């Protein structure tokens, strides 16, 4: 079910958005709806963690500048020498 939403935006932003939507052959409403759906879906996916992962969060304390790629690379070099 579609519901009306009123937004207050900068006039130049609206004009640019209208031109962009027209060039993509979609309505401005559909463009905004797609954007909002993508943003909220991404956030929901980021929040989805399993109970196992939740229990492991914070188990290891690493330095702020820890480079896991370098550390793993060093491990692989040693393993396959």
From TrEMBL:
Pfam families (alphabetical): DUF6364 (PF19891)
Protein known as: DUF6364 family protein
Organism whose genome encodes this protein: Autumnicola edwardsiae
